[in-house]
Amino acid sequence: MKTFKFTLLILPVIIFLSSCSKDSLAPVEELPSLAGTFTVAETSTFPDGRTDRDEYVITINKSATDKSYFEIANFAGLLKKKVQVLVDGEKFNIPSQTFQAGNSKMTVAGSGTLQGSRLTFAYTVRGDFTWDANCVSDKR
């Protein structure tokens, strides 16, 4: 009799717990994609206090060599080499990367967010060229 009562008490708990399912996260493919072409409005500040506004187009694609990265072509409207970007959901990081052209060397680093079709990011350039930039860009 005790076993029967115990079973009657435990059975609803077992049924309740077995009906629960794990919440599933959205597959990465469903998250907003960073890939695309963007028109960038940039405001740069130089060490002497001058500011400059510029507009240019960048193209972002998944890296062909490392699937955890994206690559930005025409970064800052001047770099011929692609800048690597590490994405984490709607946030992204531009890890420190050094580029050399002739005798000139510069290191780029920054971070930003993607909300809908708007990409907002800030970056710094150090080396033979130095400036800080804030950018707002919209997907074309």
UniProtKB/TrEMBL annotation:
<keyword id="KW-0732">Signal</keyword>
<protein>
    <recommendedName>
        <fullName>DUF5004 domain-containing protein</fullName>
    </recommendedName>
</protein>
<feature type="signal peptide">
    <location>
        <begin position="1"/>
        <end position="26"/>
    </location>
</feature>
